[in-house]
Design a protein that fits this description.
The structure is a single chain. The protein has 270 residues and is of the alpha+beta class. Helices cover 13% and strands 30% of the residues. The protein contains 2 helices and 17 strands. The longest helix has 21 residues. The N terminus is likely disordered.
Length: 270
């Protein structure tokens, strides 16, 4: 059984993670929440209506370089605890926010610690709340946050509840999704796939995909038995900027030949 490092740190959105009793009873205290391998997927360049096609190849390469430099500069200006979209599966780590773009109301993958079950929480605006674009949404409750961990260098991840006793999201061979286990095993492993539009699909150990399913009475729940990726299997995923940056730093170390012992990357241990 994999152990966890004993440490405690405060996440940027105000959640204190005490991992000294990680396996038995890790707990998160909400002080405030701030809004702020698998088959490779070929990326595609977005084209917009009215955009002029540039004929000179050298100019296009230069423009791409400028855009890349500008994006790196914008990333450097972001607050560490701000929520951003991952561009690579390795960037999915630490506090994680999962949203499905359902219509008319988006759904947030949430853990109900009282009932001890995973639920799909409808994201709606309050009476005095202005309309917020889906891409600008951030967690408003600690129950909406999952803590993503992985064995260093592994393409698979584990999604642990950010509240309650720290249970791992799992899927059995029948496609039933739950969060009721304190230990990691094959059924708790998920392989994230970044799609061309930036959304993410999650494949389980049975090579089936996590999806939104409608059951009797019109209720919605998570399933893990989809054969292919469609609308129901696509999620918007957000992670905190500092963990995305740490993932890049770790990758640079590997490319530079600085490889340490295999370890578990646990969120909020730094």
């Amino acid at each position: 059984m994999l152990g966890a490092q004993s440490a405690a740190a405060q996440l940027g959105f105000g959640v204190l993670v005490d991992q000294s009793r990680y396996r038995g009873n890790p707990h998160l205290i909400l002080s405030c929440i701030m809004s702020s391998s698998t088959p490779a997927v070929r990326s595609t360049k977005l084209k917009f209506k009215g955009e002029k096609t540039k004929k000179k190849r050298k100019r296009e390469e230069g423009d791409d370089g400028e855009r890349g430099a500008r994006r790196r500069k914008d990333d450097g200006d972001r607050a560490p605890e701000s929520w951003v979209l991952p561009e690579d599966p390795l960037e999915i780590c630490g506090p994680t926010f999962l949203v499905h773009p359902s219509d008319p109301s988006p759904l947030c993958v949430t853990y109900d610690s009282t009932r001890r079950k995973v639920i799909l929480h409808t994201i709606i605006k309050g009476e005095d709340e202005e309309e917020i674009d889906l891409m600008d949404r951030t967690p408003t409750e600690v129950s909406q946050v999952w803590v993503t961990t992985r064995v260093a260098g592994s393409p698979t991840i584990n999604l642990r509840t950010g509240t309650g006793e720290g249970k791992f999201l799992s899927c059995d061979k029948h496609g039933l999704v739950a969060a009721d286990r304190e230990a990691r095993g094959p059924q708790e492993e998920w392989t994230p796939v970044i799609l061309p539009d930036g959304m993410v699909a999650f494949m389980n150990v049975y090579e089936k995909y996590l999806s939104i399913d409608e059951v009797a009475g019109g209720a919605l729940q998570l399933r893990g038995d989809s054969e292919e990726v469609g609308f129901r299997e696509r999620f918007w995923v957000k992670v905190q900027h500092k963990y995305k940056q740490e993932a890049h730093a770790e990758e640079k170390k590997k490319k530079g030949g600085i490889i340490g012992d295999t370890k578990i990357d646990e969120a909020a241990t730094k």
